[in-house]
Amino acid sequence: MAPSNGEFQRLDAEFVRVLEDVIETLVARNLLTITDLPEDAQAKLFARKSFRERSGRNSLNLFVETDYGDVI
User: Fold this and answer.
1) Which residues have a Cβ under 8 Å from the Cβ of 64 and sit 6 or more positions away?
2) Using the 8-state DSSP alphabet, how is residue 35 labeled?
3) Is the pLDDT of residue 71 over 50?
4) Does the reported pTM lie above 0.70?
5) Beta strands in 2-71 (DSSP E)
6) pLDDT, tens digit, for every residue of 7-66?
7) Domain count across the chain
8) How far, in Å, CA of 20 to CA of 24, rounded?
9) Does a structural domain hold residue 61?
10) Residue 41: inside a domain, yes or no?
11) What does the pLDDT read at residue 6?
């Protein structure tokens, strides 16, 4: 049975979220600056981040601080 269009949309949305978190991690580690990206990409990232913050959805927090320091 072939995947439905809705399934592709869900997978695409999840993948976009992963890319956002990868970009945030690269910026946090000073491996990338947001200005390295095209202006349109910057605007889209800021818009999505702002929306996520307003809607109460936090990033995946791949790097969580613990009693042992920052760990993956």
Assistant:
1) 70, 71
2) G
3) no
4) no
5) 64-66, 69-71
6) 889 899 899 989 999 999 999 999 999 999 999 999 999 998 888 888 875 555 555 566
7) 1
8) 6
9) yes
10) yes
11) 86
For tokens 């818009």, the residue is: 47
Q: Is residue 26 in a domain?
A: yes
Q: Is residue 1 part of a domain?
A: no
Cα–Cα distance between 34 and 41 in angstroms, integer?
9
Residue 15: count other Cβ atoms within 10 Å of its Cβ: 10
Please tell me the predicted confidence (pLDDT) of residue 28.
93
Identify the sign of the CA torsion 70, 36, 16, 44. positive
Q: 2 to each of 6, 12, 34, how far by Cα in Å?
A: 11, 16, 38
Of 48, 66, 44, nearest to 57 by C-alpha is 48
